[in-house]
TrEMBL record:
Name of the protein in its database record: Uncharacterized protein
Domain of life: Eukaryota
UniProt organism field: Argulus foliaceus
Length: 56
């Protein structure tokens, strides 16, 4: 979903994250970082599962 977002959508989501960060007083990962880390984890799971249809 994140890769298909428009620039305006990403800015709006970033505003929500920044507002939340200020409200709770803790650093939060960026949405881009979360997206990339989840994609990488998913790819690693596919590569580790020889029965997965996407496994090479």
């Amino acid at each position: 979903w994140f890769a298909a977002c428009t620039v305006a959508d990403r800015k709006a989501l970033d505003r929500v994250v920044n507002t939340t960060r200020k409200f709770i007083g803790c650093p939060l990962p960026t949405l881009e970082y979360l997206y990339r880390s989840r994609c990488l984890a998913r790819a690693e799971n596919i590569l580790g599962d020889s029965t997965h249809p996407g496994h090479p």
